[in-house]
UniProtKB/TrEMBL annotation:
Pfam families in alphabetical order: Peptidase_M16, Peptidase_M16_C
InterPro entries: Metalloenz_LuxS/M16, MPP/UQCRC_Complex, Pept_M16_N, Pept_M16_Zn_BS, Peptidase_M16_C
Keywords: Signal
Any GO BP annotation: proteolysis
Boundaries of every Peptidase M16 C-terminal domain copy: 192-372
One MF annotation (Gene Ontology) recorded for this entry: metalloendopeptidase activity
Protein name (Swiss-Prot/TrEMBL): Insulinase family protein
Cofactor field: Zn(2+)
UniProt key word Oxidoreductase: no
Domain Peptidase M16 N-terminal: 37-182
Signal peptide extent: 1-22
Family, per entry: Belongs to the peptidase M16 family.
Amino acid sequence: MFHRLAALTTLLATALVLGAPAAANPFETTLDNGMKIIVKEDRRAPSVVHMVWYKAGAMDEPDGVSGIAHMLEHMMFKGTETLGPGEFNRRVSAVGGRDNAFTSRDYTAYFQQVPPEHLEQMMQLEADRMANLKLAEEQFLPEVEVVKEERRLRTDDNPRALLFEQLMATAFLSHPYRRPVIGWMEDIETYTMADAQRWYDDWYAPNNATLVVVGDVDHQAVIELARAHYGTIPSRVLPGRRIPAEPPQRGPRNTVVRAPAELPMVALAWHAPTLRAPTQDEDAYALQVLSSVLDGFDGARLPRHLVREQEIAVAAGASYGGTGRGPSLFLLMATPAQERSVTEVEQALLAEIRRIADEGIAEDELRRVVTQAVAGQVYKRDSLMGQAMEIGFLELAGLSWRDEEALLDGIRRVTADQVQDVARRFFDPDMMIRAELVPLPQSTTTAARVSPLLRH
């Protein structure tokens, strides 16, 4: 659901997965009702991944119902006009498959992985809940409690998650990325079934959905199945997307989170460009490489210098996604070692950026980053789920699976001078967003909350 602090660059991972030579290029069409269909034939294993992606995530939510996209995701498993609660999962399991769903700031997606002969049944099930979801109070109210428990477990009882939640709320004043995907607890507590129904009615339409199928299939047969099951669902007029732009940052921002924890932590962020034009946005590629130089492999600068050599931190890293429907941040984060202070690790993080800005990086270091990234992604070429995930992610981020060569070329074009240039330009201390975790004593009576009802 939430973004990982990836060790390898998102764009390079995407490009390598999509560029794997063992599978054919995808086939794409659009049904008469506006639903996009993308099929990639990969016959190396008798399996198929079936995914439906809706262009509706946390960024589309109105104020006051933060997290309703995630709440509706839960309710999608609670039954339709013809299926009872939990029946969807049972039918997938009965054919030897697996299924789940996830919500992000940009989208909500549902998937099943099954033997190919059961693909049509998955389409029947997914099309049914696209058109015929049945919400009931006896299912809705208990699921609100499940979501509240999920928030407690994953955020309220997790000091690192609390820190990054507060960082996002500080980095964005207007843009909806400021809200957590799971929602603020105060909003979750006031959900009504009408809120969930409205979200479903607004966004769960075929003309707001993309079907991705990857596996041991014939693309023409898949498209015909999609036309038979999804093509009969009428399109709907979608609400206008009035996503507020983020106003210019006028100076440094700072926030402090006090929570039970063993060690403090500091996270530093700067607004950075999001890749929109794969053949032109050179800064985005250079920032991706910079992120990997700092934290892209075992010998990267932050873990090597701050953790192993200086022993000033027990963990240190960098993160830059650079893709998505909204704006991007470049993050640095570190947890100081015992007897070392937050100030020390913060200065050490900034010193690593300054060193690259002043001295640049060597050509062999640049090449090593690319080589390490390739090695780290080689096994993903054999993953049907990995291929489907990357196709869907690109499509919902405003890019396309057709951009694979441009993405590869963009990384290949990055020079050491470009990496030094972005290190000089994007890390103004007067534009820094800083979040610090101040540990409070941990209660000896606090036990980890685990609910068997949590799906994710």
